[in-house]
């Protein structure tokens, strides 16, 4: 009876989290649509073959970041399990599960990584889940650090001029409440893992923590740079200070989308926050809108590029054995 209540509670919590995330995604997409109708997007910006070539290069750079993140995930697996899987397997599983982030709910994005546990019997599903959770923590901390360093003044200046916070700014409060709810419902499963983690010196060693955090910072800088490059390719001139602010504010938008449950790959959330905070920073709103939409496409192409490269590398690695 008690188990049935726990299962019902978990199922209800997942439904609530997914429903709220979906509503936020729909609201954000409506916000984007309204702005697009108010300001006509100039698709002529994409007519130049040099522009297309530049955007393809950015997409490949973005895909390279996914592959690098797969290598970092391999290191996290080793830290929590003591087992070192091949780079080919780690990148293939990571790049494949990364494609799953476009599925609403975000569950398959996480579950897809458990293929590592299926391929290697020495690694349990719990270890994969722990590595995934640790990666999420490092990514969030790295994003917060970069936002504070690169764009804190710009973000605060914008917020201070808002008399009534728009709905999208309520997202962190909703997410915190949902996170606390889920943590409470799953406390009996979470606490044993925390205890195990506390005694695992391979995970909590200061040097290990710094390495994983540093790697996460590098990956996010690369991600922010790809948006900056997209903006520049579409015609925006930048100074060093503006470049830093754009990267920081884009990471703020990315973090909002990353933390929003139910929104596939942060769809709508990321774009809405980027448009909101960078609207007065970029010279031309048409260029900004074009860059936001174009970068979403570039990002998807980069994900597919990483998936294809990882798949080919995995097959080559199998042939060598």
Describe this structure in words.
The structure is a single chain. This protein is mainly α and 321 residues long. It is built from 13 helices and no strands. The chain has helices at 2-38, 49-81, 87-99, 107-111, 115-119, 125-160, 171-185, 187-198, 201-204, 206-233, 240-259, 269-278, 285-320. Helix 2 (49-81) crosses helix 6, helix 3 runs antiparallel to helix 13 and helix 12 (269-278) crosses helix 13. The longest helix is centred in the first third of the chain and has 37 residues, at 2-38. The radius of gyration is 20 Å and the shape is globular. The model has no long low-confidence stretch (mean pLDDT 75).
Proportion of residues in helical segments:
over 70%
Return Rg in Å: 20 Å
Largest sheet: none
User: Strand share of the residues?
Assistant: under 5%
Q: Helices and strands: which structural class?
A: mainly alpha
| Mean pLDDT over all positions | 75
Outline the low-pLDDT stretches: none
Give helix and strand order, one letter per element, not per position: HHHHHHHHHHHHH
Number of helices: 13
Shape: globular
In short:
The chain has helices at residues 2-38, 49-81, 87-99, 107-111, 115-119, 125-160, 171-185, 187-198, 201-204, 206-233, 240-259, 269-278, 285-320.
Entry keywords:
321 residues, mainly alpha, 13 helices
List the helices and strands and how they pair.
Blueprint: H1 2-38, H2 49-81, H3 87-99, H4 107-111, H5 115-119, H6 125-160, H7 171-185, H8 187-198, H9 201-204, H10 206-233, H11 240-259, H12 269-278, H13 285-320
Helix pairs in contact: 1-7, 1-12, 2-3, 2-6, 2-10, 2-13, 3-13, 6-10, 6-11, 10-11, 10-13, 11-12, 12-13
């Amino acid at each position: 009876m008690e188990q049935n209540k726990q299962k019902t509670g978990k199922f209800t919590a997942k439904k609530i989290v997914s429903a709220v995330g979906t509503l936020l995604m729909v609201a954000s997409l409506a916000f984007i649509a309204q702005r697009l109708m108010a300001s006509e997007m100039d698709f002529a910006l994409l007519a130049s073959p040099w522009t297309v070539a530049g955007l393809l290069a950015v997409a490949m750079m973005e895909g390279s970041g996914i592959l690098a993140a797969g290598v970092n995930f391999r290191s996290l697996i080793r830290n929590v399990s003591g087992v070192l899987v091949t780079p080919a397997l780690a990148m293939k599983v990571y790049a494949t599960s990364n494609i799953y982030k476009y599925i609403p709910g975000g569950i398959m994005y996480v579950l897809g990584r458990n293929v590592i546990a299926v391929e290697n019997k020495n690694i349990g599903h719990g270890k994969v889940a722990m590595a995934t959770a640790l990666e999420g923590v490092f990514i969030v901390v790295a994003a917060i650090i970069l936002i504070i360093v690169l764009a804190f003044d710009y973000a605060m200046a914008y917020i201070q001029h808002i008399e009534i916070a728009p709905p999208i700014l309520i997202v962190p409060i909703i997410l915190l409440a949902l996170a606390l709810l889920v943590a409470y419902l799953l406390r009996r499963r979470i606490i044993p893992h925390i205890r195990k983690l506390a005694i695992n010196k391979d995970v909590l060693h200061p040097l290990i923590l710094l390495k994983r955090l540093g790697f996460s910072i590098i990956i996010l800088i690369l991600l922010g740079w790809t948006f900056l490059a997209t903006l520049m390719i579409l015609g925006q001139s930048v100074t060093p200070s503006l470049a830093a602010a754009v990267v920081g504010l884009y990471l703020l938008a990315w973090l909002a989308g990353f933390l929003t449950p139910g929104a596939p790959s942060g769809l709508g959330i990321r774009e809405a926050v980027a448009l909101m905070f960078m609207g007065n920073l970029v010279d031309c709103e048409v260029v900004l809108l074009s860059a936001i939409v174009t970068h979403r496409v570039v990002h998807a192409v980069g994900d597919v590029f990483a998936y294809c490269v990882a798949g080919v590398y995995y097959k080559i690695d199998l042939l060598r054995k």
